[in-house]
Specification:
3-stranded antiparallel beta sheet
Length: about 70
């Protein structure tokens, strides 16, 4: 599954706002993760963007609550 490639074969990149919306967090949370080095970015046309594969990676990680209770609900 090529989650970081569009149909035309080019990599997919997201803005900080779009990544924040997808992850349901505040854009400042994304900016903080970038500053801390926990979220990889790239420069495209002079803007800092986030590869779609990074968002997929974050979506596949368990949340803190799931890790604390062993994933039970």
């Amino acid at each position: 599954m090529g989650t970081d490639m569009s149909k035309n074969g080019r990599p997919v990149f997201l803005t900080v706002r779009k990544a924040a919306w997808i992850l349901s967090v505040d854009p400042s949370t994304i900016s903080r993760a970038i500053r801390l080095g926990t979220l990889r970015t790239a420069r495209r046309n002079g803007r800092r963007v986030i590869p779609a594969s990074e968002v997929v990676r974050l979506l596949s990680k368990p949340t803190d609550g799931a890790a604390q209770d062993g994933g039970r609900q």
